[in-house]
């Protein structure tokens, strides 16, 4: 029940998913194994004037009236309810909440409404005075507080945002809290609801998004030669972590293990990675070392794999540096569900555990023209049966925020 460093072994006893492929683990996982794309033309708001008009949209009841933070909260609650229900913890949750979510700010419709009182910031601030609902909607920590109350988690909920590594960061926080003996269990969530005009415009201005609007299902093309950018997406994932000792003592089904985590920062650029790949390579090596493993012990890598020319090149560099001339298979869930940003690390951790459970590697779809500079086994287009014991799940964020997780089979 202790790992190579004498820390409690950390088990996963519950998982929940919300993705553009469906609601719940079963539906989303079936879609991934089928190589089905969840990318569609955006229907939530007009896109005629935008360069990118496609996304991985999760349709919620009454979504047209919802601000992004409200979508984040709803999807996080759905995923958490599934995970907690599967874990069977019952009653008040026996540990803290670690929530990974996007940064929150007042959005265009609300700013325009405030601007009717005057276009200057002082006038808008005055108009916002006393609007408690507006404040609570766009308060960063408010979502975590409400989720903590809903699920009865213990202590003060922790909300974190580390760009595209956010979901993995939430899991890392839960893992380390249990390893240190500060908690017997943790509810870890990554959630994203930013398919909205403003994020779409911002990422478009960075030239980060695919503009393959006429073929949405073929737009996300990680590691493929004609890749041109990622597809903005949304969703949520939740994992219930607890010490293996606690899980076995209460007779819970152990779905897998979180064996280790590695984190490295890269202050090179706001969006680009340092060309030497030091932080990406360091995060991967650190995670494997933290798990007490060698690179040869990794069966499969769940890629960050966004489909941008820069990211895929750097991840390939990292794979070669860490694994040498015989890297394990690697594939990208983002080829099917797009880039779920703050949710991605958590969604991909769940997919990694399911790969272990079922002995199946989800494919990298839309792999039509191989890139000769990327000599990796990408599990192209069709899922593959394989013996999977340990998975490295990569999450590399803008601003050099990199987190990697190692997931393992249940004992």
Key traits:
single chain; 411 residues; alpha/beta; Peroxisomal Thiolase, Chain A, domain 1; eleven-stranded mixed sheet; two-stranded antiparallel sheet; 33% helix
Describe the model.
The protein is α/β, with parallel strands linked by helices and 411 residues long. It has a single domain (10-104, 139-408), classed as Thiolase/Chalcone synthase (Peroxisomal Thiolase, Chain A, domain 1). It is built from 13 helices and 15 strands. It has helices spanning 25-33, 68-87, 108-115, 121-128, 132-137, 142-151, 166-179, 197-205, 244-249, 278-290, 309-323, 334-337, 344-358; strands at 10-19, 22-23, 40-41, 54-55, 97-100, 158-160, 185-192, 235-243, 256-265, 300-302, 330-331, 360-361, 384-385, 390-397, 401-408. Strands 1, 2, 5, 6, 7, 8, 9, 10, 11, 14 and 15 form an 11-stranded mixed β-sheet that branches. Strands 3-4 form a two-stranded antiparallel ribbon. Strands 12-13 form a two-stranded antiparallel ribbon. Strand 1 (10-19) and strand 2 (22-23) form a beta hairpin. The longest helix has 20 residues, at 68-87. Belongs to the thiolase-like superfamily. Beta-ketoacyl-ACP synthases family. Residues 7-409 form the Ketosynthase family 3 (KS3) domain. This is Beta-ketoacyl-ACP synthase. Pathway: Lipid metabolism; fatty acid biosynthesis.
């Amino acid at each position: 029940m202790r790992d190579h460093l004498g820390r409690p072994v950390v088990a996963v006893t519950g998982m929940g998913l919300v993705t553009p492929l469906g609601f719940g683990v079963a539906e989303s996982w079936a879609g991934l194994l089928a190589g089905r794309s969840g990318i569609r033309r955006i229907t939530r708001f007009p896109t005629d004037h935008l360069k990118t008009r496609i996304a991985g949209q999760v349709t919620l009841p009454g979504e047209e009236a919802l601000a992004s933070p409200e979508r984040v909260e709803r999807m996080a609650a759905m995923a958490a309810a599934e995970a907690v229900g599967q874990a069977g913890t019952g009653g008040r949750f026996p540990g803290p909440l670690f929530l990974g979510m996007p940064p929150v700010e007042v959005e265009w419709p609300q700013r325009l409404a405030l601007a009717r009182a005057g276009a200057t910031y002082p006038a808008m601030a005055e108009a916002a005075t006393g609007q408690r609902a507006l404040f609570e909607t766009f308060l960063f920590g408010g979502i975590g507080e409400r989720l903590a109350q809903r699920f009865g988690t213990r202590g003060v909920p922790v909300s974190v945002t580390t760009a595209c590594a956010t979901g993995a960061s939430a899991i890392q926080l839960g893992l380390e809290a249990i390893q240190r003996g500060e908690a017997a269990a943790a509810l870890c969530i990554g959630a994203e609801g930013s398919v909205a005009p403003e994020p779409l415009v911002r990422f478009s201005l960075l030239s980060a998004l695919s503009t393959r609007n006429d073929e949405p299902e073929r737009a996300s093309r990680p590691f493929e030669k004609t890749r041109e950018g990622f597809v903005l997406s949304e969703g949520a994932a939740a994992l219930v972590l607890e010490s293996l000792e606690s899980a076995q003592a209460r007779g819970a089904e152990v779905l897998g293990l979180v064996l280790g985590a590695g984190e490295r920062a890269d202050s090179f650029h706001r969006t680009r990675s340092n060309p030497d790949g030091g932080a990406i390579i360091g995060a991967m090596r650190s995670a494997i070392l933290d798990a007490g493993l060698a690179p040869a012990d990794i069966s499969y890598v769940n890629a960050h794999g966004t489909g941008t020319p820069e990211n895929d090149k750097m991840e390939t560099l990292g794979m070669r540096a860490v694994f040498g001339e015989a890297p394990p298979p690697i594939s990208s869930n983002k080829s099917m569900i797009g880039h779920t940003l703050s949710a991605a690390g958590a969604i991909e951790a769940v997919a990694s555990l399911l790969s272990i459970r079922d002995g199946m590697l989800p494919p990298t779809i839309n792999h039509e023209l191989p890139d000769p500079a990327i000599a990796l086994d990408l599990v192209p287009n069709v899922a593959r049966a394989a013996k999977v014991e340990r998975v490295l799940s990569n999450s590399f964020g803008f601003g050099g925020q990199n987190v990697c997780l190692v997931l393992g089979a249940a004992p």
